[in-house]
Design brief:
Helix content is 22%, strand content 44%. It is globular, with a radius of gyration of 21 Å. The protein has five helices and ten strands; from the N terminus they run ααβββαββααβββββ. By secondary structure, the chain is α+β, with helices and mostly antiparallel strands. A hairpin with a 3-residue loop joins β9 and β10. A ten-stranded antiparallel beta sheet has the order 3-2-1-10-9-8-7-6-5-4, sandwiched between helices.
């Protein structure tokens, strides 16, 4: 079936499905819960961390071990959460020792500089791809400018402001058979997938860029009614000029959580 016919059929299906609605939590509700933290009051959480970093290149595998302390806090109601990491132990292979200080900074940045969903979700057409057990949902998303281009190309300009039509097109473009056609450069990911629970907590996030992919899987511990990191597994894969395919992996373990404790 030609792409134009597929696009038209998807728009018709989206329009006819509006009155019913899906089971469970709607995508609009999930997006609102992701953006709005349920407990915006000030707090301070201290914890210890241990991290293993593995870099796999065509010439071999390099591993870095690190440990230290971290502080996650909010100083005033409604302000963003902030993290501060202090590396107290850093073991690097001989080949990387000249870059000891640079590696230390990379580690602290990985912990402190969290890419928040609010930075890229507003410029993605997001839909519920799958409803999973335990109150979790798989979300898919395609960058809005890509959806705009495709809808314009196939004569669907009249529906550019129709959320249901846009999500139907995004779902089609996000499908494995179409993903290769939407790779685009840009400051943000051209496509994403995320696993969130019905409270809006993001447990897995995978971002697709023209240069490669970045993925995180997060396990939380709840202290005083607030979720905090217990384990973060991050993966990245990209083509590096002069080196070929480079795969990176970080496993971050967080322990000894202490909410609103006295300084140790």
């Amino acid at each position: 079936m030609p792409a134009a016919a597929v696009l038209t059929a998807l728009v018709v299906i989206a329009a006819s499905a509006r009155p019913g609605g899906a089971q469970g939590v709607s995508v609009d509700t999930l997006l609102e819960r992701i953006a709005n933290e349920p407990n915006p009051q000030p707090f301070a959480m201290t914890a210890d961390f241990a991290a293993d970093f593995t870099l796999k290149t065509p010439t071999g595998v390099l591993t870095v071990h690190a440990g230290g302390t971290m502080l996650e806090s909010r100083t005033a109601p409604g302000e963003p959460r902030r993290r501060k990491a202090t590396v107290t132990r850093l073991d690097v292979p001989l080949l990387l020792r000249p870059f000891h200080n640079s590696i230390r900074k990379v580690i602290t940045d990985l912990i402190e500089v969290e890419q928040r969903p609010s930075e890229f979700l507003p410029v993605q057409d997001v839909f519920v791809a799958e409803e999973r057990g335990g109150g979790r949902y798989l979300l898919g998303g395609v960058r809005t400018d890509i959806v705009n281009d495709v809808m314009t190309k196939y004569g669907q300009q009249a529906l550019l402001r129709d959320p249901a039509a846009r999500r139907a097109i995004a779902r089609w473009l996000w499908s494995p058979s179409q993903r290769g056609t939407i790779v685009r450069p840009g400051p943000g990911p051209y496509m994403l997938e995320a696993v969130v629970d019905e409270s809006g907590l993001v447990h897995e996030l995978r971002l697709f860029y023209d240069w490669g992919q970045v993925g995180n899987r997060i396990t939380f511990v709840v202290v005083g009614g607030r979720p905090f990191w217990r384990e973060v597994v991050s993966n990245t894969s990209s083509e590096v000029s002069g080196m070929g395919r480079v795969d990176g992996r970080m496993v971050l373990q967080v322990s000894n959580h202490c909410l609103n404790c006295q300084a140790r």
